[in-house]
Amino acid sequence: MKQAVSFFDVWKIRQDFPILSENVGGKPLVYFDNAASSQVPKVVIERISKYLSQEHANIHRGVHYLSQKATNSYEAARERVKRFINARDPSECIFVRGCTEAINLVAYSFGKAFIQEGDEILITQMEHHANLVPWQVVAEERKAKLKIIPMNENGELILEEYESLLSERTKIIAITHVSNALGTINPIKEMIKIAHKFNIPVCVDGAQAVPHLKVDVQDLDADFYAFSGHKVFAPTGIGVLYGKKEWLEKMPPYQTGGGMIRRVTFEKTKYAAIPEKFEAGTPPIMPAIGLGAAIDYLDSIDFNAACEYEKELLEYATKSLCEIEGVRIIGNAREKASVISFVIDGIHPHDIGTILDKYGIAIRAGHHCAQPVMDFYNVPATARVSLAFYNTKEEIDKLVEAVKKTIEIFS
Ligand code: 7TS
Questions:
Q1: How far is the CA of 69 from the centre of ligand 1 (A)?
Q2: Strands across the sheet containing 224-228
Q3: Taking the CB of the first residue and of the last residue of the chain, which one, N or C, has fewer CB atoms within 10 A?
């Protein structure tokens, strides 16, 4: 039987994102910097505006109407996050400022409770600094050892080496689901299964995965899963740390103060239950509500069709860029999300980025906060095109023309 192919109407989707109609320097904006921050749909902008104009108040503490309304909206956003990643319970979804804060929370709090001198922490060679530096700091503080799962030339983790690095000294493994510098999709589920054979918990950096893949934390069996709202069509200032209840309940607070207590005396403080235990102070109420609206938006479109469409775009862009003489793609994993890092001999990536900007094309150039990845490939930086489901083949054609012009200018 022939399978139904769902149709993805990118031109209709583009209408949902007001910024995509903007001009940059007289040219229509071509936005290819989605791995840094994705754009925000109108429904999210409107939801934030409604919150600010009709519901704004501090949460959890007030008996008055507005405070209760804001509290309900904030907690409804948590419920949406729970659904989005299929957590067992909303209390396992902690609102934080972003993915960086989520990982710092785990590193600090888990580290304090469970990592001792001589223990080992395992990370990979392709981590964003957000999933590297916090573990390095914890390792230093606790006199533990940081060990690295290596990758091959294609930018794929070497799984045989991974297994051989595990020991009874390994206390936690931190792995990115999708590499922001290479686009590699790591076999997280398989890696978690292996870690669990040794009873080792896994903290997944999902910052680059949630915009491109359907994530199910229960199916993955992840112990911790971190992501940022601003990469998944929500505003900045909000992120999520998912953690299994059994871990979060055993971990000490990351920050302390108001909102996270049950009872305070000068002698002793008793902490609130999760999630409040990890949400000291006034949380990012408005951005959390924005994230809830972004999740509603993703529910309203055919996300599976969007993912399929993005795959097509990735293939088209990869093929088109490879056909340009002098362009070399960094990261050729078999399983990739829509990130393409490339270099051109004799042209610094910053120059590529600056010239493309003159054509209205926004890409990123630099080390992408993954300096060990740059060291591995022996390049100082790359130019990076990162796609979202609102991008088009026409935009990729413009990119190809502009890259060719860049090469002409420098030859
Ligand atoms: N982890 C990964 C894999 C990332 O790509 C990023 C941000 C982070 C963590 C940190 O997220 P934040 O929201 O807390 O900053 N990555 C990028 C990038 O690739 N370009 O700009 C930011």
A1: 32
A2: 93-96, 239-243, 224-228, 202-205, 170-176, 120-124, 145-149
A3: N
